[in-house]
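Q: What would this complex look like in 3D?
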Amino acid sequence: MPHAGTGDAAAPPIAGAGRAHYRSDVAKIVPLPQAVSELVHDGDTVALEGFTHLIPFAAGHEIIRQRRRDLTLVRMTPDLIYDQLIGAGCASRMVFSWGGNPGVGSLHRMRDALATGWPAPLEIEEHSHAGMANRYVAGASGLPFAVLRGYSGTDLPTHTDTISTVECPFTGERLAAVAAINPDVTIVHAQRADREGNVQLWGITGVQKEAVLAARRSLATVEEVVDELEPVPGAVVLPGWVLDAVSPAPGGAAPSYAHGYYDRDNAAYRAWDAISRDREAFTRWLRTIEEAA
Amino acid sequence: MSAEPVAGTQAASGWTADEMMSIAAARTLRDGQACFVGIGLPSTAANLARRLHAPRLVLIYESGTLDTRPDELPLSIGDGILAESALTVVSVPEIFNYWLQPGRIDVGFLSGAQVDRLGNINTTVIGEYDEPTVRLPGSGGAPEIAASCREVIVVMRHRMRAFVERVDFVTSVGHGSGPDDRALLGLRGAGPVRVITDLGVLEPDPDTAELVLTALHQGITVEQARAETGWPLQVAADLVFTAPPSTTELETLRAMRTVGSKEIP
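A: Here is my prediction, written as structure tokens for the whole assembly.
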């Protein structure tokens, strides 16, 4: 089994170390409640990735049902899923680069938590998309930081201590540097897996590969488990041995979408605005999630 | 989209101020250009341009969809229709690192909550960062789009609260604090070359980089533009009037629908 890392305390953690948990060389196909129970702990840094497409809503709702607390939620676009986790009181911190309801407006649970601390105070660490993408690239690459042309002249570096600058050793040019992200656990949703736990996703593949490879533990929820993964143009395949668990979750990306399976439910994104604006409406919504088995 | 209309424009002219803005913004894009598109007003205008005079406009969205040709407007930058109609779909790190960062993109097409006298854009907070009066979505791809595209075009409704002397937070750098600032900051693109509003067009003065009024849409007066601008708005000596929308432009714009919606965007 390939692995990275030197044991040096300053080095990034060994990729895939959490897999020892299952004492197996392939990802275990397990029910979603079991996977969340075993992989997501209070206080963890958790990344649920999926750039508009393949957002792991079913896994997020399971985290809500299991009442995880004090999570650091990492995601480029918090979207409805983090609005829901924040409103449910699961998070104490959020690392992100664009926190809105795409094409609709604001994330009102996020805004409420920031402004009033309801239901729990929320700290934020804010980046640009390019910065966040490169933080995942560094994390996946086993590097402590990434270099990019970015942030220069903006007010973000004043407020975010994981943004700095570095001098190019060859040209002397000053460039932006961002600290690597290595989540305790990354969760992604994909179209399908085979019975060995190899996972295949296609369409807009976002930053999922990097987010999984950067993480200590990882879970993929899938629309279906199949005997064989038919090749698809442009698909990302995550080998079973880099994942800790695969959980079947048909429809698990709704109201976002799964390319080739179902469309984005734009009406649900619009409808979320009214639910999210009002604590009582949100609390009623939360009850439906908590009561769903 | 909800914003108070400019008084009287529709009744007097047969089109809304928003329609004039989208059409004026679409006209500014040239066929064959590569355009990095923000969601909302820029996406509407870019897709309109592609249906009118710029069929070979290369539309790029930060979700990694490269040269996409949606037949309906996406609600988000990652709608399935963008992937289905794209020449290719690349990862998010790739779209920023390989396509945007090296300066391959001609035009960055952005909007914002605030733009200032020097073209700097705020999409982060109104008020103080730690205790904002309004928390906005944040950066997204905009800071690097504004830094690295060859030029930037901003599309925004012209309102006093949005056109400010100095933005509360610099999310994306326009001309910084003056005409030499972009070079000093190592920003390689030209920055904002045009701000298209529902009242007219502002462009940076070549000497000071200050946004000045260079065009007014039909039926709008200099006084109206000044009344909605938070700095003493200068007027270019060669101020022009925007040509009114043609029937084709209006019909094409009104025929565009957002995915999953019956509304006009």
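A: To summarize the key features: Residues 129-141 of chain A form the longest helix (13 residues). The first strand of chain A starts at residue 28 and ends at 29.
Q: Very helpful, thank you.
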